[in-house]
Amino acid sequence: MSVERVPMQLGCLSVEGIERHFRASIPIKGTSVLVLKNVSGATADFRLKCFTRSHAAKTFNVALAVGDKKEIGWLEGWDKNFLAGEYCTAEIDDTQVWKIVVPPVK
After folding, report:
1. Residue 83 burial (CB < 10 Å; 0-12/13-18/19+)?
2. What's the Rg (C-alpha) of the chain?
3. Phi, psi angle pair for 82, to nearest 5°
4. pLDDT averaged over every residue in the chain
5. How many H-runs (helices) and E-runs (strands) does the chain carry?
């Protein structure tokens, strides 16, 4: 499946429209998984940069069609899921569109 590049302004709008939250991990207590869902009216194609509390980083290329959902955690390559205080940013062409910080697990 190919993803058509859209102008940055439209791309930013679709990425801004991503619903995002963290849910508690089931197999690894005390950690979280990032949940992304595209509720905008266009495909969202962006880089997701995630940072540990010690500032190590990993980048994921994300392409979500309208209505698609994706989870990011250890299965996708993040070490041991997310811990409170770690964070991710969504970027298009090196412009940060949003940032989400992992809250403490309840």
Report:
1. middle
2. 14
3. -95, 145
4. 87
5. 1, 7
36, 16 in Cβ contact below 8 A?
Answer: no
Give residue 27's identity as a one-letter amino acid code: P
In one letter, which amino acid is 14?
Answer: S
The residue among 100, 81, 102 whose CA lies nearest residue 29 is 81
Against a cut of 0.90, is the pTM above it? no
Say how many CA atoms lie within 13 Å of 1 toward its Cβ. 6
Question: What tokens appear for 7 in the block?
Answer: 């102008």
Q: How many CA atoms lie within 13 A of 19 on its CB side?
A: 12
